[in-house]
Amino acid sequence: MFCKVIAIMGPTASGKSQLALQLAQEFKGEIISGDSAQVYIGPDIGTAKPTFQEQNLVAHHLIDIRQLNDPFSLADFQKIASSLIEEISYRQRVPFVVGGTGLYLRGLLEGYTLVETKPDPKLRESLSNRELPDLLQELQERDPVAYDQVDRCNKRRVVRALEIIIQTGRPLSEASKREKPPFEVLKIAPYWERDVLYQRIDLRLEEMFRSGWLEEVSSLYEQGWEDNLRYLRILGYSELLNVVKGELSLNEAKEQIRLSTHRFAKRQLTWLKREPNLNYIPAGDGLYDQARSKIKKFLEA
User: Fold this and answer.
1) What architecture does CATH give domain 195-264?
2) Do domains 114-175 and 195-264 have the same CATH topology?
3) Highest CATH level, class, for 114-175
4) In terms of Cα–Cα distance, which of 71, 63, 56 is closest to 42?
5) Considering the chain, what percentage of its residues have pLDDT values greater than 70?
6) Contact assessment for residue 283 and residue 11, using Cβ atoms and an 8 Å cutoff
7) Is the pLDDT of residue 279 over 80?
8) What is the rounded distance in angstroms from the CA atom of residue 298 to the CA atom of residue 4?
């Protein structure tokens, strides 16, 4: 069946989740998380997962569906999210895809998929054992476009990009294909000036610490998840693991996390500049009304 989908996009701390929550309530929607970290059980505070109260207000999907040692890929996301879009639409509700993992959202909404390659455990282990700067240098040499687009702080994604390039012998852009998805999409993103966005990031990080982020990481460490958390490279968790182990002071960790989150937001903004048909709406008092108006017009067309 042909569906209409609302995508709420934007960098970290841009307010996209709260905007989506409000809009989904008004338009009888359900939210499909497009965040690659929120699929994992355990990391809650640092991934800004919706609270139980928020999930009771609006049905959320693709949250807490994997253990930290259970891999989740772009192909997994596309398959499950596509099925959810059809299911939600069949129930005459509106699918809202919400998140900041650009590769996931573009793959789903624009129909890009990577050519499937057979698992090569030896190649993956060999790449994983190398230092990230070394991997990034090879990726830049082999595929400058992929180097520009990949999350360069996420070693797992860099390894995966190199895996595909090495196995196929082609750049990622040539090893991918596009098949138009069976739905129409309206893409909306709140717009903030960069300095204001950075201020919002800093405030949210402080709130995360007040909410017990360090205690959450300590608990995950005690449960034996250190290696998995480090491999997944979810923002902030490696630094806080170092605090838990006494290898870094909390103040040093906070500053490292603050700077790395700013850099991450900058890369997200760069990625979004290339996002086809994205409707930016200035953040502020008129954000909700403008978004509401665009969605109403889109759904009624």
Assistant:
1) Orthogonal Bundle (1.10)
2) no
3) mainly alpha
4) 63
5) 98
6) no
7) yes
8) 8
Quick: pLDDT tens for 55-102: 999 999 999 999 999 989 888 999 999 999 999 999 999 999 999 888
Domain boundaries, the chain: 114-175, 195-264
Helix H, strand E, coil C: the string for the chain is: CCEEEEEECCCCCCCHHHHHHHHHHHCCEEEEECCCCCCECCCCCCCCCCCHHHHHHCCEECCCCECCCCCCCHHHHHHHHHHHHHHHHHCCCEEEEECCCHHHHHHHHHCEEECCCCCCHHHHHHHHCCCHHHHHHHHHHHCHHHHHHCCCCCHHHHHHHHHHHHHHCCCCCCCEEECCCCEEEEEEEEECCHHHHHHHHHHHHHHHHHCCHHHHHHHHHHCCCHHHHHHHCCCCHHHHHHHHCCCCCHHHHHHHHHHHHHHHHHHHHHHHHCCCCEEEEECCCCHHHHHHHHHHHHHHC
pLDDT bracket for residue 116 (50, 70, 90): low
Taken as a whole, the chain contains a residue count of: 301
CA 84 to chain centre: 18
Pick the residue with more confidence: 234 or 174?
234
Cα 65 to Cα 40, 96, 108, distances in angstroms: 6, 18, 18
Among 43-47, 142-146, 232-236, name the one with the lowest average pLDDT: 142-146
Burial of 65 (0-12, 13-18, 19+ CB in 10 A): middle
| Side chain identity at residue 1, one-letter code | M
79-108 per-residue burial string, b: 16 or more CB within 10 A, e: under 16: ebbbebbbebbeeeebbbbbbbbbbbbbbb
